[in-house]
């Protein structure tokens, strides 16, 4: 827990530095504005990152009457993990996927897509839920949620500055001593830098959630099959809800079917490695027996 808190503060500092650097490139006047913006974003990301993430994906609460079996899975696996039962949300997206968010287990949320419920059999859905419960139990959802919220904000600011530069909006920064070219370069580089910061905290947490999720479900093979099916699904079915800034939250990369830089900067470890680790765990049943 202490390590994840340290990572969160480090992450907030790194992404804040990116914002302040944009302000510095635009000039002294803009620096003050961007320092204030960074402070406001830090506060908001810490306390409301889960709400921001859910709203970005159009997630809606899933009532127990609508999905009693799914709610039963969540209650059972949360009890196994020794955490409060997370709230359950549904994302209307044909791509099969899922993510967890919340600043601590008391505010945990598990969100699944309609595509996941439609394409995966029950036992594999249970494996996916166990993986997301593991993220909450490992207390790494705050780090990932803050990363997603801050990266989304940095990307938004960068895109706004690019748009402004195209229409001469950086002329004032030149009068204040800033460089319009420097501001434009920072606006382009900042979203990439925010993604690279996310890479440092995303990959190892997936391995840990895979292992703990397999132990909670008592079925590493079902989780391995689910990952394979989800990986194929994300390659074939484009997501209408996912955003590059929040890709690290999902159990599998929602942009697996994309090429170029999006694939190069994947926030997830190689799928074949994850599946191989789970199948190795399945061959040693004593290691995960409940």
Summarize, please:
With about 290 residues, the chain is mainly α.
Walk me through the structure:
This protein is mostly helical. The chain has one domain. The chain contains eleven helices and four strands. A hairpin with a 7-residue loop joins strand 3 (98-101) and strand 4. Helix 1 (2-26) packs antiparallel against helix 8 (180-217) and helix 3 (68-81) crosses helix 5. The longest helix has 38 residues, at 180-217.
Approximately how much helix is present in the residues? 55-70%
Largest sheet: 4 strands, mixed
Discrete helix count: 11
User: Could you name the ranges where pLDDT drops below 50 across 5 or more consecutive residues?
Assistant: 170-178
| Helix/sheet category | mainly alpha
Which outline best applies?
globular
Number of strands: 4
DSSP strand content: 5-15%
Biggest sheet strand line-up: 1-2-4-3
Radius of gyration (CA) equals: 20 Å
Order of helices and strands: HHEHEEEHHHHHHHH
Distance between the termini: 24 Å
The averaged pLDDT comes out at 79
* Total domain count: 1
Task: Please write out the topology.
Blueprint: H1 2-26, H2 28-56, E1 60-61, H3 68-81, E2 87-91, E3 98-101, E4 109-113, H4 114-119, H5 122-137, H6 141-166, H7 171-175, H8 180-217, H9 220-236, H10 260-264, H11 271-282
Parallel strand pairs: 2-4
Antiparallel strand pairs: 1-2, 3-4
Helix pairs in contact: 1-2, 1-6, 1-8, 2-6, 3-5, 5-8, 5-9, 6-8, 8-9, 8-11, 9-11
List keywords for this structure.
mainly alpha, four-stranded mixed β-sheet
């Amino acid at each position: 827990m202490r390590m994840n808190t340290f990572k969160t503060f480090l992450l907030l500092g790194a992404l804040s530095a990116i914002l302040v650097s944009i302000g510095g490139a635009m000039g002294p006047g803009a620096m003050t504005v961007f320092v204030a913006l960074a402070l406001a974003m830090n506060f908001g990301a810490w306390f409301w990152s889960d709400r921001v993430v859910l709203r970005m994906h159009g997630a809606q609460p899933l009532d127990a009457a609508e999905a009693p079996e799914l709610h039963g899975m969540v209650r059972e696996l949360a009890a196994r993990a020794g955490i409060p039962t997370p709230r359950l949300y549904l994302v209307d997206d044909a791509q099969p996927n899922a993510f967890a968010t919340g600043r601590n287990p008391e505010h945990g949320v598990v969100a699944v897509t309609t595509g996941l419920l439609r394409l995966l059999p029950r036992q594999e859905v249970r494996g996916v839920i166990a993986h997301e419960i593991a993220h909450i139990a490992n207390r790494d959802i705050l780090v990932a949620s803050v990363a997603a919220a801050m990266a989304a904000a940095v990307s938004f600011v960068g895109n706004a500055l690019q748009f402004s530069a195209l229409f001469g909006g950086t002329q004032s920064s030149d009068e204040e001593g800033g460089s319009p070219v420097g501001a434009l370069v920072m606006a382009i580089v900042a979203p990439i830098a925010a993604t690279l910061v996310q890479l440092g905290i995303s990959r190892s947490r997936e391995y840990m959630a895979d292992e703990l999720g397999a132990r909670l479900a008592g079925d590493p093979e079902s989780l391995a099959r689910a990952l394979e099916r989800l990986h194929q699904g994300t390659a074939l079915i484009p997501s209408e809800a996912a955003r590059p800034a929040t890709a690290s939250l999902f159990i599998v990369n929602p942009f697996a079917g994309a090429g170029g830089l999006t694939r190069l900067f994947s926030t997830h470890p190689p799928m074949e490695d994850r599946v191989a680790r789970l199948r190795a765990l399945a061959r040693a049943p004593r290691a995960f027996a409940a």
